[in-house]
Sequence to fold (566 residues):
Amino acid sequence: MAHAIETHGLTRKFDGRVAVDGLSLTIEAGTVFGFLGPNGAGKTTTVRMLAALIAPTDGDAVVAGHALGVDDTALRRSVGILTEQPGLYDRLSARQNLRYFARLYDLEPARADAQVERYLHLLELWDRRDEPVGTFSKGMRQKLAIARALLHEPTVVFLDEPTAALDPEAARTVREFVKGLKAEGRTIFLTTHNLPEADELCDSIGIFQRRLLRMGSPRELRAGLFGAGTIVRVVGDAARYVAVVRSLPFVREAHAEGETLTVQLDDPDSRNPDIVDALRAAGAPIRYVERLQHSLEDVYLRLVGGHA
Amino acid sequence: MKKALIVLEKEWLELRLQRGLLLATLFLPPVMTVFAVVGFFAVGKLSGPIPQGGPLPPEFVSLAPLEVAQAIVGRQFSILFLLLPIFIPSVLASYAIVGEKRERTLEPVLATPIRTWELLLGKILAALIPALAITIASATVFVVGILAFAVTDRVREVIVTPGWILAVLVDTPLLALIGVALIVVLSSRVNDPRTAQQFSAVLVVPVIALLFGQLAGVIVLGPGLALGIGVVLAIVAAGAVWAATRLFQREVILTRWR
Fold:
């Protein structure tokens, strides 16, 4: 299976209001895809459609090899979903919660018990296995909900805000776990507002606000939106060297602010030595040279801000 | 069907862990039955003049005052066994469905390969089976108490009638089913199990009307009437279950339930 998820013009309307508008995307198997967008952008609706919880108004999709609307029961058996709310039974123990879901995912009792034990160990909940979930911290509940999504070993996993409201330690545990899932070859569809987290985990990212605004790897998104560039810090006023840099044929734009010279060009990796040579020839005392780095947040805010 | 049983098993596990709910529902029928049998027995032991007044059902006219007193007590308590199967499953279902909606546990369940009819069936059976089992067991104890402590055979005959037995066995399960279906319908609009229970309590009105109609001699609950009521209830139950099934779909639950 080359593509874990493929959608064409996926659309969902609620009483005439368009929540998801013609979403077309392809997600490679074994990758982590970040689905970013503001609240109310339609992310949860998209996840619900792809997990065969609600039907699209228009368009089609293939998820984990199953076409939406053909055999949705089989599709649900092939995917795991961490919903926005953990949705656990507080009176039941961690083990009872997981066993219930393992059985609903068609695992035979012996295998269900084995899987429950495996994931309780993996997510460090084994010692609390027989305690009511109502006594668990937010982080433990989230980990248990993640375990629940994986009991049946799905190939595609939807994680809706997996680290939301978790303390840094719990969030880190979850992130490491997501990396482990990717290493096992699973495809992760990650919805998050945590942009550094998306930057760290995702192979590709889709920025979404009712429709897909942009998609690519984090690096492609940065380059596509802001271009590549180099920052040169000099001793003294950098404005004196702007003309020198601008005269270089491969430089697209250069400007100075205090001691910082920002240079935009297509291929900094190979052209930086030429910039340094030109500046040294002009007598510029260079402190250091670094890559112009825009954060994913810059990309996100420019795209989403432009469509708000 | 297998998944409906998995749901049923989970519901009962949760019920066992809710002591308050368990006490308020499943222990109520045995307690009331004991109370009814003791009351019936005590009235049979009355001595001295028995006050009389008000119109009596036609079948009570030929009874002696002590027999009338026992028959009235017995018949009033016998109505309990028509009310309990409405009350208990409505309470259980309201916690099983509205409670699950409130706790937001339905979506992860709907994300599994379960079919919505299996989930609904599991929840309906989890509410109906214990309620009907405990009610029928209590009604059996009540009948044994009536047979044992009635002052005459004539008292037994006016309380434990074929109409009442048919009503307990046929009409009340249907009323209970209507009650549970009504809870499902209400679940799409309310977020508090108690609110759903209050709405579904409207179902006791026809049973209360039956009680007063009988005591006033206006209605005689014979086998024909019990079966006739059963047919009407079966039609209403079919409609209620259809409406519940329409509302208990993934799409509707996730997008329309508020």
